[in-house]
Amino acid sequence: MQASQQFINSNKERFLQELFELLRIPSVSADPAYKGDVRRAAEWIVEKLRVAGADNVRLEETPGHPVVYGEKLIDSTLPTVLVYGHYDVQPADPVNLWETPPFEPTIRDEKIYARGSCDDKGQVYMHIKAFEAMNQSGELPCNVKFMIEGEEEIGSDNLEVFVKNNKERLQADVILVSDSAMIANDIPSIESGLRGLSYLEVKVQGPNKDLHSGVYGGAVANPVNILCQMIASLQDEFNRITIPGFYEDVEELSASDRAAMAQTPFDLEAYQKELDIAAVHGESGYTTLERASIRPTLDVNGIWGGYIGEGAKTVLPSVAHAKISMRLVPNQSSNKITELFTKHFLSIAPKGVKVMVTPHHGGEAYVMPTDHVAFQAASEAMEITFGKPAIPTRGGGSIPIVALFEKELGIKSVLMGFGLDSDDIHSPNEHFGLFNFYKGIETIPYFFQKFKQLHS
Amino acid sequence: MQASQQFINSNKERFLQELFELLRIPSVSADPAYKGDVRRAAEWIVEKLRVAGADNVRLEETPGHPVVYGEKLIDSTLPTVLVYGHYDVQPADPVNLWETPPFEPTIRDEKIYARGSCDDKGQVYMHIKAFEAMNQSGELPCNVKFMIEGEEEIGSDNLEVFVKNNKERLQADVILVSDSAMIANDIPSIESGLRGLSYLEVKVQGPNKDLHSGVYGGAVANPVNILCQMIASLQDEFNRITIPGFYEDVEELSASDRAAMAQTPFDLEAYQKELDIAAVHGESGYTTLERASIRPTLDVNGIWGGYIGEGAKTVLPSVAHAKISMRLVPNQSSNKITELFTKHFLSIAPKGVKVMVTPHHGGEAYVMPTDHVAFQAASEAMEITFGKPAIPTRGGGSIPIVALFEKELGIKSVLMGFGLDSDDIHSPNEHFGLFNFYKGIETIPYFFQKFKQLHS
After folding, report:
1. Before A94, cis peptide (omega within 30)?
2. Which of the residues A13, B239, B245, B412 has the least number of beta carbons within 10 Å of its own beta carbon?
3. Does B219 touch chain A (CB under 8 A)?
4. What is d(CA A11, CA B293) in angstroms, rounded to the nearest whole number?
């Protein structure tokens, strides 16, 4: 991979400037107001894939945001790698907390600050540039297919349909995904698992209009008080989730697996300092690493109701809302959990209110065996560029689509991510290290090389 | 009061058009954006008092919104009535739920729809017009003083200072207030008591920034979940407030008082139908009327935190907020309850979060003896215009300033209100019946007449 690495070395600045172009497009998939920008981002990816040398590059329409497809099939006897990623990003709210505008990429302390810099535009672009390097240097070891979607942040519903309708075209020996994090820049790691997700929105309707809290207070159910009581009751004093059947299918890790996990480098003090919290908080009987990866959770992602303006308004609100999501672990079914939540939440509503539950989106958890050839190839590739073997970890986040790939295409995904948990993805001031961006581009060609060797 | 009543009769349309002018001024005291409008409303009142014949009318500056003062002192041997009211209004949010614009008064089904139509511009204006009628007809039976403030909806803090600094000028034999409701248009009533208020804002700070709920969910305290748990814990399964010492000073009504209260006309079915609720909800062991008047309450008036935009965002929020108010009953001290709440709320915060409590405003409960001459005068005045005696009731709302009047000036207030609980004050589509507006103007002169007679 000499020539490829040289090509990368001599084009670093151009690669970065191109990424900046992509980061300037506010492709927020959750908000209809950005529909046009999401499409612009897709068209931009199409153009760059063509320039990099991909064939049959096209923008595949869906009922929602388009999927970008492209391929380079050099020899049918060689293994095929399907690269998956997404060009859509999370909303930038709260925008006022950004030090520099979310869609105006800025370099500070060797880091690229912008929404999507790490999740996932920066990591998607590593693949396009690594492909360009291998292709231009005549060192491409495998066939490549690209599938870059625009709805990962809102559940990948349309990609699911696209996958089901294109099983032939998407056939490959492995799916390569860079949409996750390593432990640290000097501690490379690869996620051997991901959590699933069930995301719902709830509405508690009290009286048919806002009321005066003096005239009606104490006599009429206050939907905000009730919503707080209902949410609070979903967890017990050990921070275990109280929804009947919730833990039924949870895969309990063996003592030896937990012991192995305990070996993962982790500095609790630094963790608390970084977040400015006096203590961690979670399910009794589990470590912080376990709570954030192998255990299911229930978090309120947003809540609103009543008067939230300046000053004081003595109102008894008519309605209260909350967005609630649960992270799931292997064996838990997203649909089943969504049903269990809905059934339970409706059942605990007092007579004085009406409750509505609306599922947003979900996805299944995923496990990648560490002895899989693709996992080994990724591990060896990182060992070359980082100078030390990658540690297998279990990720707390969700990439619902990888479980679907396995189900529909029968292909495993290797999660070779180059971000860091401290990159503030989904938060203000999201960033991605220049070190990480370039290290990713350098590592990917070695993955292709190792995968070709190990696969045969 | 012949001439006065004739004057009223022949000027009804003008009175209404003038009130419309006042209702068009968006004098929202809670929102700094309306500061100029609040002042315009004050200046408008000044002008109308002068035209009605009041002397020494002036706009008294305060650090906040101004107080309007005016007087007509005809004979130092006659009793003096101090009329109190407020020209500021509640915010109009949620504006989208108004059928017609909140600051464009509209008549529908014999009712004036506008923010402040009942609370309290409409009722304040009844007094100005009743005074004009008595004055122009040479039938004014007592000396009159007017004190109309612009901060009732935000706690009357500056009026409190004004009152303390003007005890001489404000001397009177009774304070007459129309800022409350009757049972029904055919069931006149007078409030013999009001609830106090303690209003606070709480902030629960978790991590120093929004986090990815997959990466950190389950391991870091979620401030929204925590806030819900803390709020839920403030009430037990009997809907009793759990703050230590909260009920210590609560005045328990005697069995006979409760029996008398039970005689008040009340239709539970109509009440639930009007609000479209399947059941009422409140403290065990008390009736709806009791829960809404003689028992203290705790209501969340507003809550917000995390992502509340369109779609789904898998964020673990950094902070959560709530506005919480407690209605208090006689003998409970607003300051003491505010302290008890703050102390308790801070004490129940888990280690993983930081909690801040900020008091907004408060006020003491108030009781008016039904055998007080002013209460008798009001009762007899209503009997003349409604054709039946007024029923004494206990109001659930708060007019913090009346307790202060008694403390600072040693003067009792009579709460002769002409609104209805169904007028949607503090809600979208606030309204005030034309019947009520005119009936108030007609009744007030008789109060002056009766008060003069009974006082001597």
Report:
1. yes
2. A13
3. yes
4. 76
Determine the structural domain holding residue B69 and report its residue range. 2-194+365-455
CATH code of the domain in which A352 resides: 3.30.70.360
- Please indicate if any CB of chain A lies within 8 Å of the CB of B236: no
Assess contact for A103 and A111: CB atoms under 8 A. Answer: no
Tens of pLDDT, residue by residue, chain B (456 residues): 899 999 999 999 999 999 999 999 999 999 999 999 999 999 999 999 999 999 999 999 999 999 999 999 999 999 999 999 999 999 999 899 999 999 999 999 999 999 999 999 999 999 999 999 999 999 999 999 999 999 999 889 899 999 999 999 999 999 999 999 999 999 999 999 999 999 999 999 999 999 999 999 999 999 999 999 999 999 999 999 999 999 999 988 889 889 988 988 899 999 999 999 999 999 999 999 999 999 999 999 999 999 998 888 899 999 999 999 999 999 999 999 999 999 999 999 999 999 999 999 888 999 999 999 999 999 999 999 999 989 999 888 888 889 999 999 999 999 999 999 899 998 899 999 999 999 999 999 999 999 999 997
Which tokens sit at B197? 């208020």
Please say whether the beta carbons of A259 and A268 come within 8 A: no
Is A178 in contact with A382 (CB distance < 8 Å)? no
Would the ipTM clear 0.90, i.e. be above it? Answer: no
Closest Cα to residue B131, out of B118, B117, B143? Answer: B143
User: Token pair of A265, please?
Assistant: 């480098």
Instruction: Say how many domains are in chain A.
Output: 2
Chain A neighbors of B277, CB-CB under 8 A: 206-208, 220-221, 352-353
Q: Which residues does A423 contact at the CB level (< 8 Å), separation at least 6?
A: A117, A118, A119, A181, A430, A431, A432, A433
Stated pTM of the model: 0.84
What is the three-class DSSP state of B121?
A: helix
The answer on A208 and A180 residing in a single domain is no
CA–CA distance, B66 with B36 (Å, rounded to integer) = 11
Q: Are A148 and A59 in contact (CB under 8 A)?
A: no
Task: Say whether both A242 and A188 belong to one domain.
Answer: no
- A433 and A111 Cβ atoms separated by less than 8 Å: yes
Q: In this structure, are residues A104 and A198 in contact, taking their beta carbons and an 8 Å threshold?
A: no
If contacts are CB pairs under 8 Å, which of residues 283-342 in chain A contact chain B? Answer: 283, 288-289, 291-292, 295-317, 320-323, 325, 327
Does A233 lie at the interface with B, CB-CB under 8 angstroms? yes
